[in-house]
Design a protein that fits this description.
alpha/beta; Rossmann fold; 5-stranded parallel beta sheet
Length: 206
């Protein structure tokens, strides 16, 4: 059985005969969270799964500038936690149609209501860096998830992927390395050092 099939099997087993299952897919930046979420959505029965990315709750750059956090974009304090928490509570409540914001990295901003979670969606795959962060207020998310997955990737591989990511988005080598050292790596260390246990730990996803 492939690893992705093993993960899907674990999700099915946890779901049992229950209705909606909310799955947390956590890991450091560039671990492959969105890749894993997309692969699971495609593997689960057609139309039964939706992906909800935490990145849609990035504060806008203008807000970060006012708060002196522009250089730390991607850190826990640069997200609208309250909005994200409220969305997860609506998902658990089974509202008939829920609009979800999606972060567009090419524009570096979130697009409101860019995706929808329907009432019939059984598997909700929530992906983000800080879903298992053992810090307030993020610990409040714990009871909102039925099953959790953590993607564990070596630091050198994360750095390689981040360099490739920032080059593809037009950053120079010097700028990419500086951003990784001053922003991405501190976020990676925070995720790795301060996380709650996950139900399932898996390796890297490209």
């Amino acid at each position: 059985m492939s690893e992705i099939a093993h993960i899907a099997s674990a999700i099915f087993k946890r779901a049992g005969k229950s209705g909606r299952l909310v799955v947390a897919i956590a890991g450091p930046p560039a671990a492959g969270k969105s890749t894993l979420a997309g692969a699971l959505r495609d593997l689960l029965p057609e139309g039964s799964a939706e992906v909800v990315p935490m990145d849609g709750f990035h504060f806008d750059n203008a807000i970060l500038e006012r708060r002196g956090l522009r250089g730390r974009k991607g850190a826990p304090e640069t997200f609208d936690f309250a909005g994200f928490e409220a969305l997860l509570k609506r998902i658990r409540a089974g509202e008939p149609e829920i609009a979800v914001p999606v972060f567009d990295r090419s524009m570096e901003l979130s697009r409101a209501a860019a995706a929808l979670v329907g009432q019939d969606s059984r598997f909700i795959l929530v992906e983000g860096n800080y879903l298992l962060l053992d810090e307030e207020p993020w610990t409040r998310l714990a009871p909102l998830f039925d099953f959790s997955i953590f993607i564990d990737v070596p630091r050198n591989e994360l750095e390689r992927r981040l360099r490739q990511r920032w080059h593809e988005h037009g950053r120079s080598e010097e700028d990419a390395l500086n951003w990784i050292a001053t922003n991405d790596m501190p976020n990676i260390e925070r995720v790795l050092a301060r996380r709650r246990p996950a139900d399932l730990v898996v390796g890297a996803f490209a």
